[in-house]
Design goal:
Layout lengths: L2 E4 L3 H6 L4 H21 L12 E2 L4 E2 L15 E2 L5 E3 L4 E4 L5 E3 L8 H7 L16 H5 L45 E2 L15 E6 L4 E6 L16 E2 L9 E3 L4 E4 L4 E4 L9 H9 L14 H5 L8 H4 L20 E7 L11 E6 L4 E6 L5 E6 L6 E5 L27 E3 L7 E2 L8 H4 L39
Parallel strand pairs: 1-21
Antiparallel strand pairs: 1-4, 2-3, 5-6, 6-7, 7-11, 8-9, 9-10, 12-13, 13-14, 14-20, 15-16, 16-19, 17-18
């Protein structure tokens, strides 16, 4: 369930003639109906846990309707992440119905990851499986911070997964690994290839908050890559869409409870423009459209499709997707900010999903050879782009694989079937000053302090439908 945060109050409704008793009864009835609809969904999208708002560069107070940057991830409340540590090496996700192995243990090759599922007996269960990319992505939280990919220092970084219940490790410098070498394997293989013909598996990196295609065997000239592995069991329907064309320019996914615009925006735009486009859309008699968050948007990916194999984008053909020059397809903006860089400039990038080839610029030989424009991460990858700026400033992309920078990305708005069932008062969330975000380190030197968490007391985890309290604010 994803509901719009409204600036309404009970007093406001009473002024329109509703008694407190009537209002309470109606609110409760609608809330129960919403919960029943959410429970009926087989592919419930877990919220991203992003609770702070950003402009193109930094944190800002929640924008009001009609103001720039209104409608971003933090302003919508979904199915709050909720877990139970079973005390036997397993963790139950109370939203998705999936059970996970708590500790991934030592890294494995892709073949070892597949073979290990049938041998796993954690918690006394014998039906473990290697997760699909959609199952594993359900665990990602965009309260994490993206470290420098070249760094070997993970001090004061925050992973993109709940470390209260799951064991997590950054890359080990003693093994010649980077901080971001914390990729997790899935059973979802790319139907095409990446780089120069590499067999590829889609994985989630909980260190830097991305989905990328990784080698599913020995890459040319390199030893076989290894991954962390978290086996899963339960809810075999999770990640399977159930699309229905409503005949009015919209598509309903009964599995997730989301309704999508059938066509895309037809043109690229900046992140700020994408938010405004979705918030301002009126379609099929509804005006509560919004820009999807990262996890909602990724739910649309059809990993059985790829331009080089099916001659289509990685999405069900029930949707209409713009064709770009050269047989390419758009990247699509999400409403989720990707926290990257120093804390006083962490709002510069936003998450997108590539429904066509996830292109990058690679040098062959590495480091000094000719640049080649390749599918480096696969159709269905989730990466991030600057929210604004000139793509020409990135002639060979950025990051270890030279991720292509477009900035002018496309939009596919979404709404929830039960979007009007609950209305919440907008929480009073204010940005932290730079001094609060970066406390003084040893000897008075500025530190890289971690942003405050979502505001729950230690040991408390929200259940489905529970409203998040306002994040902690500095005392000044």
């Amino acid at each position: 369930m994803k509901v719009k945060v409204k600036g309404e109050s009970r007093e406001g409704n009473q002024e329109h003639g509703s008694s407190p008793l009537t209002f309470t009864f109606t609110f409760t009835l609608l809330a129960l109906l919403a919960a029943r609809l959410a429970a009926a969904a087989t592919y419930t999208i877990v919220d991203t846990a992003q609770v702070r708002a950003y402009d193109n560069t930094q944190e800002v107070p929640y924008p009001k309707p009609g103001e720039p940057f209104c409608g971003q991830d933090a302003q919508y409340e979904g199915n709050a992440p909720s877990y139970r540590d079973n005390g036997d090496g397993t963790v139950s996700d109370l939203v998705t119905g999936l059970m996970w192995v708590r500790d991934p243990g030592e890294k494995k090759t892709f073949e070892q990851a597949i073979a290990g599922a049938s041998k796993c007996s954690v918690g006394g269960h014998d039906d473990w499986r290697l997760p699909t990319i959609k199952e594993l992505y359900s665990l990602i939280l965009f309260s994490g911070t993206d470290p420098d990919p070249r760094s070997a220092n993970s001090a004061r970084q925050k992973p993109f997964i709940n470390t209260d219940v799951f064991a997590f490790r950054y890359g080990d410098p003693a093994r010649n690994e980077r901080t971001i070498d914390s990729q997790y394997a899935t059973c979802t293989k790319y139907v095409s290839t990446t780089m120069q013909g590499n067999e590829t598996m889609f994985g989630v990196n909980f260190a830097d908050g991305r989905i990328k295609g990784y080698p599913a065997g020995s890459a040319r000239g390199r030893r076989e890559k290894t991954y962390y592995v978290m086996y899963v069991r339960g809810n075999p329907a999770y990640g399977k869409n159930d699309f229905h064309d409503n005949g009015d320019g919209t598509i309903t996914d009964k599995a997730t409870g989301l309704v999508w615009q059938k066509a895309d925006s037809g043109k690229g735009m900046s992140w700020q423009e994408a938010l405004a486009y979705a918030e301002g859309l009126t379609l099929a008699g509804h005006s509560d459209w919004r820009l999807p968050n990262a996890k909602e948007l990724q739910s649309l990916v059809d990993y059985t499709r790829a331009p080089a194999v099916t001659h289509s984008p990685a999405i069900d053909p029930i949707f209409q997707t713009t064709n770009l020059a050269g047989g390419e397809y758009p990247y699509f903006w999400s409403s989720t900010t990707h926290l990257d860089g120093p804390f006083n400039r962490q709002g510069t990038a936003a998450v997108y999903v590539a429904f066509g080839r996830a292109l990058g610029w690679m040098q062959f030989p590495p480091g000094w050879g000719e640049y080649r424009h390749l599918d480096v991460h696969g159709a269905g990858a989730q990466r991030s782009d600057p929210k604004s700026g000139d793509p020409a400033a990135f002639p060979h992309g950025r990051g270890p694989q030279g991720d292509e920078i477009r900035i002018s990305n496309y939009v596919r708005p979404v709404r929830s079937i039960d979007a009007e069932s609950v209305r919440l008062v907008q929480p009073d969330v204010m940005p932290l000053p730079v001094t609060a975000r970066r406390p003084q380190g040893p000897a008075g030197r500025p530190g890289m302090g971690e942003p405050p968490g979502p505001g729950f007391p230690p040991g408390m985890r929200p259940g489905p439908g529970m409203k998040r309290p306002p994040p902690r604010r500095p005392r000044w």
